[in-house]
């Protein structure tokens, strides 16, 4: 019985080795690939323009609010305003500050949504190209070396050129 178990274990190891050696592995540097896609550069330029517009709007709102705070402080120092009026105007300015903070959050959300809307189709196109290259060339796994997962790879297993060709780059 012991010899039979040893034989079965040896066969199992042999089949596992054959199965692993039959798998084909490849890798790609997705960050390097993304930098070469013209649509990404266009999307980034559009996002940068939008961000500058938002920054300008935020700067204007912040400057306006700061001016109002300074005017209120000046009125209080010069005794032009009663304590009750000061309290009322301070509360109004606090509401305006909260409104500006909400606007800033909306800006961040809008930029994030716009970025996702512009870049998702590009990422989908890249993933389709990678999947297509993997199927056409018999790869079982393709790793992304830009995320730091790959510790070693033969240069011949880099599928980046195949994916670039699939994307027309």
Helix proportion of residues, in percent? over 70%
The domain count comes to 1
What's the total helix number?
5
N-to-C series of helices and strands:
HEHHHEH
Task: Give the spatial strand order of the biggest sheet.
Answer: 1-2
Oligomerization state: single chain
What percentage of amino acids are in beta strands?
under 5%
Ranges where pLDDT stays below 50 over 5 or more residues in a row are none
Distance between the termini: 61 Å
Q: What structural category characterises the helix and strand content?
A: mainly alpha
Relevant terms:
single chain, 169 residues, mainly alpha, two-stranded parallel sheet, 5 helices, 2 strands, 76% helix
Written description of the protein model:
- By secondary structure, this protein is mainly alpha-helical.
- It has one domain (23-167).
- Helices cover 76% and strands 5% of the residues.
- It has 5 helices and 2 strands.
- It has helices at residues 2-21, 30-35, 38-77, 83-137, 160-167; strands spanning 25-28, 141-144.
- Helix 3 (38-77) runs antiparallel to helix 4 and helix 4 (83-137) crosses helix 5 (160-167).
- The radius of gyration is 30 Å and the shape is elongated.
Quick summary:
By secondary structure, the protein is mainly alpha-helical. The protein contains five helices and two strands, in the order H-E-H-H-H-E-H.
Task: Describe the secondary structure blueprint for this structure.
Blueprint: H1 2-21, E1 25-28, H2 30-35, H3 38-77, H4 83-137, E2 141-144, H5 160-167
Parallel strand pairs: 1-2
């Amino acid at each position: 019985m012991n010899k039979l178990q040893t034989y079965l274990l040896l066969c199992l190891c042999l089949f596992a080795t054959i199965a692993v050696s039959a798998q084909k592995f490849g890798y790609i540097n997705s960050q390097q690939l993304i930098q070469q896609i013209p649509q990404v550069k266009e999307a980034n330029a559009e996002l940068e323009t939008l961000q500058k517009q938002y920054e300008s709007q935020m700067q204007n709102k912040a400057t306006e609010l700061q001016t109002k705070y300074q005017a209120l402080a000046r009125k209080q120092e010069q005794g032009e305003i009663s304590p009750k009026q000061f309290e009322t105007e301070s509360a109004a300015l606090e509401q305006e500050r909260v409104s500006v903070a909400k606007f800033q959050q909306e800006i961040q959300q809008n930029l994030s949504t716009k970025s996702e809307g512009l870049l998702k189709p590009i990422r989908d196109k890249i993933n389709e190209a990678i999947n297509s290259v993997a199927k056409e060339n018999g790869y079982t796994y393709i790793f992304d070396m830009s995320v730091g997962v790959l510790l070693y790879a033969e240069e011949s297993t880099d599928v980046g050129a195949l994916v670039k060709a699939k994307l027309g780059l």
